[in-house]
Amino acid sequence: MERWVGKVAVVTGASSGIGAAIAEALVKEGLIVAGFARRKEKVEQLAKKLKDAKGKLHAVKVDITKEKKVVDAFKCVKKNLGPVHVLVNNAGVARDTSLIDGDSQKWKDILDTNLLGLCVATREAIKDMKANNVNGHIIHINSVAGHKVPFIPFVNVYAASKHGVTALSETLRHEFIQNQLKIKVTVSFKVLL
């Protein structure tokens, strides 16, 4: 972790759960963390708790499903905090629905957050890393459901989205090799949901 001390990390979905825990751990290790979340006030509360930590947490209001908001948030981070060195794509949702008679808006919410939001955040982080000659690290928080489809009623599209995260991570690794970028990609797993 010493290599990242004083460097900028972006954590999506930083307002609660795994995202908040990751943001907290990174700040305690000395990173400058931009916590992206729709519920900015939750990230601000965490930042107050961490005011004496080695690093610093900055709350950034972002809806990961809105491309312009994500692009603007990365511009804000670059302008106010510096170049991005680490991106932790943690934002994710699950919605109770099915394939047989499912709600297409719930499907869209899952795919827009778990896949498209991840893609946009990844693109913006890499664009910044390349512009600043940063050998960064992209971390996708995935799920066991991204490798094996569990039988959990009404969680059908969630597993498909997490399989997509697995495929996108491998695709990204290939693109890094092809473009001779010294950026790493890691997929980390949480248990099911």
Describe this structure in words.
- This protein has 193 residues and is α/β, with parallel strands linked by helices.
- The protein has one domain (2-190): NAD(P)-binding Rossmann-like Domain (Rossmann fold), CATH 3.40.50.720.
- It contains 5 helices and 6 strands, in the order E-H-E-H-E-H-E-H-E-H-E.
- Strands 3-2-1-4-5-6 form a 6-stranded parallel beta sheet, sandwiched between helices.
- Helix 3 (67-80) packs parallel to helix 4 and helix 4 packs parallel to helix 5 (156-178).
- It starts with 7 loop residues before the first strand and ends with a strand.
- The mean pLDDT is 93.
- Keywords: Coiled coil, Oxidoreductase.
- InterPro entries: NAD(P)-bd_dom_sf, Sc_DH/Rdtase_CS, SDR_fam.
- One of its GO terms (molecular function) is oxidoreductase activity, acting on the CH-OH group of donors, NAD or NADP as acceptor.
Structural class: alpha/beta
Rounded to an integer in angstroms, the radius of gyration calculated over CA atoms is 16 Å
Order of helices and strands: EHEHEHEHEHE
Unreliable parts:
none
User: How many domains in all?
Assistant: 1
The multimeric state of the shown protein is single chain
Q: Look at the structure and name the CATH superfamily.
A: NAD(P)-binding Rossmann-like Domain
Head-to-tail CA distance between termini: 27 Å
**Separate helix tally:** 5
Organism: Agrilus planipennis
Family: Belongs to the short-chain dehydrogenases/reductases (SDR) family.
Pfam family, one: adh_short
Protein name: Farnesol dehydrogenase-like
